[in-house]
């Protein structure tokens, strides 16, 4: 008898105070963000710590206070109704930060919020950090843009159309730092812009060019130059994806040809009834688990292969052209679209093979768009796009 009464009281109060204000008040009371996390979230809304620690590691003293506070004692039916309402009305950032605020109140709020929030494949939204490692939606791509900072050799991935259209409402997703070495170039990817340590919880992944004398697990050893995502440099090379750029005899006068072997995604994922690996939580066991990827060890699980969509030659413009549907406005050799390269035996329809899974292109000085969809995640799409920034003498 108490639960319906509590729900009625909440509905009466919700008429007096907007739901958004109510949730923001709860978010302010949680007090779980550290100073650095607040600094990183000024442009993108709230940030929530990985699932490996229910709350921020620096907020241990506030954990007990929050868990035993008045918000943790709400009836489960009332709590579920609150979170469902917040999740239904906040469909984009920065409003999506209110959903994160609900998960930041205490452990019980966090658990119900995780049950209510669906994966990007199911709802098309990015909410928690783990969403960056989950496949995107199947039909409508998630539109992002990358801002390059040449002075600091950093690349920032934002969710949004462009800086001009989104302004300060952009959501910062990932940040990559370019590290030049004597024999190769590395990109370290982090959840924040001021912490690129591989021992940190903010570490998301790494894109590197193996040295020429380093053995690389490859399905095509004739490729001239290769960028591979390496999970841990402290262990034998473990590759979850390989991005290859083939020799271009026309150099800058011809388009690049690229191929992506996605060792963590089976080719059957894009077939009828197929599914792609979807990590649900961060773990700290090792770098392989933290990335949420597993290589395909079974011979029956053939890895998914992506190839760039071949451009057509425009006689009037005298250049190679691709239809980016208005998302790319500046001609560049870096522009590309990736589609699935399936074999006839893999039972993948022709329309599915023609769908653009990832497109990347230039729209201004140091501004590039990146749109991705299932079965790629934001992290995978970002890593593939980063490979296009590195100079490739065999391609140009």
TrEMBL record:
InterPro entries according to UniProt: F-box-like_dom_sf, F-box_dom, Tubby-like_C, Tubby_C, Tubby_C_CS
Compositionally biased spans, kind Polar residues: 216-231
Family listed: Belongs to the TUB family.
SUPFAM superfamilies: F-box domain, Tubby C-terminal domain-like
Listed name of the protein: Tubby-like F-box protein 5
Record domain Tubby C-terminal: where: 132-391
Annotated segments matching region Disordered: 200-232
């Amino acid at each position: 008898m108490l639960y319906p009464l509590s729900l009625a009281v909440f509905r009466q109060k919700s008429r007096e105070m907007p739901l958004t204000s109510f949730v923001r008040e709860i978010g302010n009371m949680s007090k779980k963000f550290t100073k650095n996390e607040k600094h990183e979230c000024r442009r993108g809304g709230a940030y929530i710590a990985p699932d490996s620690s229910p709350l921020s590691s620096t907020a241990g003293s506030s954990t007990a206070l929050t868990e035993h506070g008045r918000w943790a004692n709400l009836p489960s039916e009332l709590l579920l109704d609150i979170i469902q309402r917040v999740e239904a009305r906040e469909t984009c950032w920065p409003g999506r930060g209110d959903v994160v605020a609900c998960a930041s109140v205490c452990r019980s709020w966090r658990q119900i919020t995780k049950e209510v929030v669906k994966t990007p494949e199911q709802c098309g939204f990015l909410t928690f950090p783990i969403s960056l490692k989950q496949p995107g939606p199947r039909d409508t791509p998630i539109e992002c843009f990358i801002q390059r900072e040449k002075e600091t050799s950093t690349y920032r991935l934002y969710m949004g159309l462009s800086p001009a259209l989104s302004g300060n409402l952009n959501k910062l997703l990932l940040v990559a730092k370019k590290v030049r070495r004597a024999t190769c170039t590395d990109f370290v990817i982090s959840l924040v812009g001021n912490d690129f340590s591989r021992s940190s919880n903010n570490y998301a992944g790494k894109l590197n060019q193996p040295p020429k004398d380093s053995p690389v697990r490859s399905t095509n050893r004739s490729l001239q130059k290769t960028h591979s995502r390496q999970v841990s440099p402290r262990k034998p090379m473990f590759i979850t994806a390989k991005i290859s750029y083939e020799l271009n005899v026309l150099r800058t006068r011809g388009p690049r040809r690229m191929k992506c072997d996605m060792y963590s995604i089976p080719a059957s994922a894009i077939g009828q009834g197929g599914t792609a690996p979807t990590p649900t939580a961060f773990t700290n066991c090792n770098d392989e688990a933290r990335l949420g990827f597993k290589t395909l060890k079974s011979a029956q699980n053939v890895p998914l292969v992506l190839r760039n969509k071949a451009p057509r030659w425009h006689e009037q413009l005298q250049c190679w052209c691709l239809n980016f549907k208005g998302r790319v406005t500046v001609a560049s050799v870096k522009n590309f679209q990736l589609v699935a390269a399936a074999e006839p035996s893999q039972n993948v329809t022709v329309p599915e093979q023609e769908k653009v899974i990832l497109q990347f292109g230039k729209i201004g000085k140091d501004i590039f768009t990146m749109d991705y969809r299932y079965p790629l995640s934001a992290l995978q799409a970002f890593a593939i796009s980063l490979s296009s920034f590195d100079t490739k003498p065999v391609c140009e």
